[in-house]
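Here's what a typical entry looks like (Phosphomannomutase/phosphoglucomutase):
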Amino acid sequence: MRSLESVQAVIKAYDVRGLVGEQLDEPFVRDVGAAFAALMRGEGAIRVVIGHDMRDSSPALSAAFAEGVQAQGLDVITIGLASTDELYFASGILECPGAMFTASHNPAAYNGIKLCRAGAKPVGQETGLARISQQVADGVPAYDGAPGAVSERDVLPEYGEYLRGLVDLSGTRALTVAVDAGNGMGGYTVPTVLGALGQLSIRPLFFELDGSFPNHEANPLDPKNLVDLQRFVVEQGADIGLAFDGDADRCFVVDERGEPVSPSAVTALVAERELKRSPGATVIHNLITSKAVPEIIRENGGTPVRTRVGHSFIKATMAETGAVFGGEHSAHYYFRDFWGADSGMLAALHVLAALGEQDLPLSQLMAWYDRYAASGEINSTVADQTERTEAVLADFAVEIAGTDRLDGVTVELASGAWFNLRASNTEPLLRLNVEAATPDEVAALTGRILAVVRA
């Protein structure tokens, strides 16, 4: 028996994640597999597809999970090494639930599981993880039927062909593309997906699969992890740089000067392209993306819908609204044509197509979509998140044009600038994002807000 508290420390709101050997071991994930299979069998599933990343612990943990699934009478299809969006693809085409073993951008000592229903539909705390936690703590009831069988399938070629079928690059100009895989799964998927496009000359950086991440963390959201790619783009004379996180479901973009491209600008560009294919469609964006995103969606005849931060909210709203596309400031990009799931590779194909369809360098192309200056997300450790938030609101009281509390508090100022303060759910942190017309205004607002937050 395990305590529910210890189980819930690993089975979190949206996925399973913990330190290998301490929180996550083969008996534990075997029970998670059994509980997941029992839940899915109750919903009519007959098989589960399983993939894993390049971490040393992933093959053994995924095999143990498969044993738990088989013990509950469900068949297992293993796809071996995969990116997370490749696993979502497999769940979509095979119409079965899936499990991806990865800790994404977390350090080498961690591993985890991302679970989904058939068609890559998410499994979160309220849609299955709470029940799985309880069963893992109490003990999963034995299944009295025959165990399931296991088979293998390589879906990587189909995945690449499917993505290339969604974005037409046939008429684009030749491009030199620098790609930093961060020793993660992009090093496995990029050669198949992008390497098949003859007009692209791929310049690889850190493509060797290595779950110890010897060069830098596989987390391009942190600016320090983009430095190698920025330098490499300039050295190679590349037209564009792409950086993938550990499980390659997020993609960050660097222009020909080695300057990072805002994920908000990428969201706006892809939204514009998708609205040309689906006029009048809905596009989702979270509340931290630039206000340029809803502006550009409206300019292109679409309907913008704003959500809280987090993939579960984006995916739920995608399903409710039938949105054609959704984007987050963290470089997660969601597509109706990809079962509503996120795919950094598909977003990369859109950016490559947009760049290759015209003659401007990427920096000039993206200037249209990057209309405002932004601070990026800044974290502050505070003892009382609510008290510090209210202190900021008091400081700006006479300048506030409007507020909302969809996720934390978003403040619209009379100047046209805005900021958002959100409390972390798991740490004593306040997260700040600021956007204004100029970098100087952003710097002034950021300094003023942080002086109150950190007082």
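The domain at 263-367 is CATH 3.40.120.10 (Alpha-D-Glucose-1,6-Bisphosphate; Chain A, domain 3).

More examples are in the samples folder.
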